[in-house]
Amino acid sequence: MILFLLAYLGGALTIVSPCILPVLPFVFARADQPFARSGLPLLLGMAITFAGVATLAVVGGGWVVQANAYGRVAALVVLGLFGLLLLFPSLADRATRPLVALGARLSQNTAGPARSTFLSSLLLGVATGLLWAPCAGPVLGLLLTGAALQGASAQTSLLLLAYALGAATSLALALLVGGRVFAAMKRSIRAGEWLRRGLGAAVLAGVIAIGFGLDTGLLTRLSLASTARFEQSLLDRLHPEGAMPKAMPGADALADKGPFPSLAGATGWMNSPPLTAEGLRGKVVLIDFWTYSCINCLRTLPYVKAWDAKYRDKGLVVIGVHTPEFAFERDPANVRKAIADLGIPYPVALDNRYAIWRGFDNQYWPAHYFIDAKGRVRAARFGEGHYAESERIIQRLIAENGGAVGTMDAVEVAATGVGEAESARKDRSPETYVGYARAANFVSPGGFVRDARHDYVLPALTQRNDWALGGAWVVGGEHAVSAAPGARIAFRFRGRDLHLVLGAADAKAPVRFRVTIDGKAPGADHGLDVDAAGNGVVTGQRLYQLVRQQGPRERSFQIEFQDPGVQAFAFTFG
């Protein structure tokens, strides 16, 4: 209800924007006619048209993320044209001239009260709505981010309609006040033109940057990404990160926890055509919520793959639901590569809009939900561990369905590399984010300089879990980007393993780095992505294992990037 109210109020405030001026003459032309027959249908037509245009924008945002090369070019062309229209008013006048002429013709044809009809006023509202939509679009995009996270749906359309009705209400009030409002708006037109041209220049700069690959993945981040501060705060409020449950009920507690939530919200499927809850009746289903840069998910993955191999012929269907944490994990190409690299054979649903996540009311990576052959959720397990117990649940549900599970022994998994089980010691360093939105224990003098280049000083680290930056960085809410060669990160950690989620701002320009432990080359303690001398290269957006010791110890870690443009997201430990 609060979101609907905000949408309505945001629409009501649209009238203060100078670019609403092209709409106002058509509105005021109806001021002397009966409101129910003339003004009301005009405003209704505008509201419906605008809601439709904005809904297409939301749907289009999701399409851009998954667009192939031709779709990407088409999107850039459209964005470029939009930028030119904003930058050059003369072009905008020519482009909108047919709509303006239509509005004027409709206005003249219905000038007399006797000739004014509901339908003609409605058509006039449709025409003026098409003029109005580009003006209010940027404001709407920010206000309705919460709706965009859910994707195109009935609720999203209702929110868009609430926004449009709010704007129609303010214009209805303008009908009562008349020309005085129009005169006040005209006084602000000069500032509005400069604002319009500034927006146009910014759009064209973005198109050029994307076209030359200067900011890889920008379209993905702009479309439904959770990386913007506003979006991330909404996501955190909807799904706060609570403490992982310490104890779970035993395998004998297989209560009916409700129906199998819908899978219809998936934005794509890999290794399978789209699956539905209804189509999976008669099968035992294991839902695995994961994301490919999550170390806990990667350590659970060998067991999930083993269960799929052992019980697929006995009636088990494993479905991985890939719900991204970082923007780059929303790119289907990145997920497809991760699935191939990890050797995942079972179906994977892409949950970029968190629709399936919300359907299960999930809050954790990884999370396993066990569903019986009747389509009822019977158990859930969160985090790593309790593998034998989870397998007993699978066996019981298969037996309930009349299947023969054979040996009751649990699968034996000898995972290596990143997938190797975490160390037994629980006093290891915690997951630590590099972006300022969720960072902790950052000790560089002066703290973060947000969203701007800054030369950080690397202090001595004396306390466990302290970390700092050195050299030139631009720190954003989600991650930090190195702005010059020689940028460094230092961390005083305890653990067997140290991982860091990294990416390259330019996918075509790998970033070289060198790791030291206690000021020396790691030698035998190097991770999978580092050699004994400490050298490595960032070639893609993923989790990198930088340290693998024989046992958990407290050490001083430092990584120096020899090239600019690295993206650093989060540390995890094992």
Automatic annotation (TrEMBL):
GO molecular function: oxidoreductase activity
Keywords: Membrane, Transmembrane, Transmembrane helix
Pfam families: Redoxin, Thioredoxin_10
Keyword hit for Membrane: yes
Domain spans labelled Thioredoxin: 252-399
Annotated InterPro entries: Redoxin, Thioredoxin-like_sf, Thioredoxin_10, Thioredoxin_domain, Thioredoxin_ResA/DsbE_sf
Transmembrane regions listed in the UniProt entry: 6-28, 40-63, 69-88, 122-148, 160-182, 194-214
UniProt protein name: Cytochrome C biogenesis protein
UniProt organism field: Sphingopyxis lindanitolerans
